Structure formats: structure tokens, C-alpha cells
Amino acid sequence: MRAANLKPAPELEYDHPFELLLAVILSAQATDVSMKQATQKLFPVANTPEAIAALGVKGITPFIRHIGLFN
């Protein structure tokens, strides 16, 4: 595998450890494509525990609705 890809990069896009945690949680229920779509829209709005909590369930739902089993 190393010969095929000398510099592997993760599919998950994140800037902070908390963003990585959210991306991993979302990726467990989604394809990489749908998870990326969600995090690219969510992280500019809320990328800290406090910001996610402030959104609440109703606030975060529009960002993750397209991910299967989001409830």
C-alpha cells in the first residue's frame, strides 16, 4: 500500500481536535461524501463544544439531516 500511495491523506477534514471528533462520529453513520458535505457547512458555523451545544438539536439537524440515521 505504501508504494501505491506515498503520502496518504485522511478523508476527514478538520482543523482542531474537536472537529476531528465530530467528523469521526458523523463518519460512523455516513459515507465520506455525505460526511464531508455536513462538516464543510457545519464547521464554519459551529466547531466547538459550546457552539454545538448552543445550536441544540433543532439547530444542528439541518446540517446533518442528509446523513443516514442522524436521529
Secondary structure: elements and pairs:
Blueprint: H1 17-27, H2 32-42, H3 49-64
Report on this structure:
This protein is an all-alpha fold and 71 residues long. Helices cover 54% and strands 0% of the residues. It is built from three helices and no strands. Helix 1 runs antiparallel to helix 2 (32-42). It is globular and about 45 Å long. The chain starts with 16 loop residues before the first helix and ends in a 7-residue tail after the last helix.
Structure described in brief:
The chain is mainly alpha-helical. It has helices at residues 17-27, 32-42, 49-64. The longest helix has 16 residues, at 49-64.
Helix-strand string: HHH
> What separation lies between the terminal Cα atoms?
36 Å
List segments where confidence is low: pLDDT < 50 over at least 5 consecutive residues: none
- Structural class by secondary-structure content: mainly alpha
The largest pleated sheet is described as: none
